[in-house]
Amino acid sequence: MIKMTGNRQFSLDLLIVAALVVLTDIFVLVPPLSGSFLRTVLGLLLVLFLPGYALTAALLPAKKDLEGIERALLSLGLSIAITPLMGFGMNYTSWGIREIPVLAGLSAFTLLSCGAAYYRRSRLPETEAFNITGETFTSTLKTEILEEIGYGTSKAFAALLIISILASLGSLAYVIGNPRGEEPFTEFYILGPDRVAENYPTEYTQGNSGTVIVGVKNHEHRNVDYTMEVRLENHSLPLPEDQKYISLGHNESLEEPVTFTPSVEGNNMKLEFLLFNETEKSIPYRNTHLWINVTKET
């Protein structure tokens, strides 16, 4: 056991949590290690268990607050809540939801929670503070799992809990061993004259041409022949052949100006850009639109 200031024992569980956080950071950030299976295992621990366990330890520092199994279940639930909340918060920062910022955020949160947990435990009498040591781990596990599930509904609940845990582990192992491939899809979008998704031209004159930037990106894992159509209030507008028919290979993209001529006048009219794939010619595969005003030429 490790002695700390004031002759208090630093809880083995907090030390293990902190070590696992640091180890996860190493396996994610160091290139030779980042491709190993252990990186995935450690990453899942950091996402699904460690933050919740550290927070539980900080909030409930005494033995009487919660038993071991309940702590583990609460840790899992809190981690499942903490991780998406942190990702949601990151989305509103300049870092965005990216691997390294989320890793840094979860690591810092977990380590700070471990520090808070140790501080709160240190202020309790040693006999009252929740603590797991190497000497007591086996006996604690036996007490929590074997002795307390001896009779009636407790035994049934424990059996159900064990089955659920085993099923979750089996599902997790299957997902890791059989990763799902990327779903095929196509990006289809329009941009303004500055090639950004804003400042779209919305004022036109009947009979005069207008231009927008149309983008198509093929992520279908195959070559695809697309057909594009532009409609104003459900009236098809003629397009040049080279703009109407688009052929792209997998991961190829096209971002080109598309010219059209409004045929009718009116306010707040729907200008639709429709993209059809090679297998379905009557129902648009992708679509987007603008609301425009067209005035009569004077």
TrEMBL record:
InterPro entries: DUF1616 (IPR011674), UCP018671 (IPR014495). It comes from the Archaea. Pfam families: DUF1616 (PF07760). The chain crosses the membrane at residues 12-30, 36-60, 72-94, 100-119, 156-176. Residues 17-293 form the DUF1616 domain. Keywords: Membrane, Transmembrane, Transmembrane helix. This is Conserved protein. It comes from Methanosarcina mazei (strain ATCC BAA-159 / DSM 3647 / Goe1 / Go1 / JCM 11833 / OCM 88) (Methanosarcina frisia). The lineage of its organism: Archaea, Methanobacteriati, Methanobacteriota, Stenosarchaea group, Methanomicrobia.
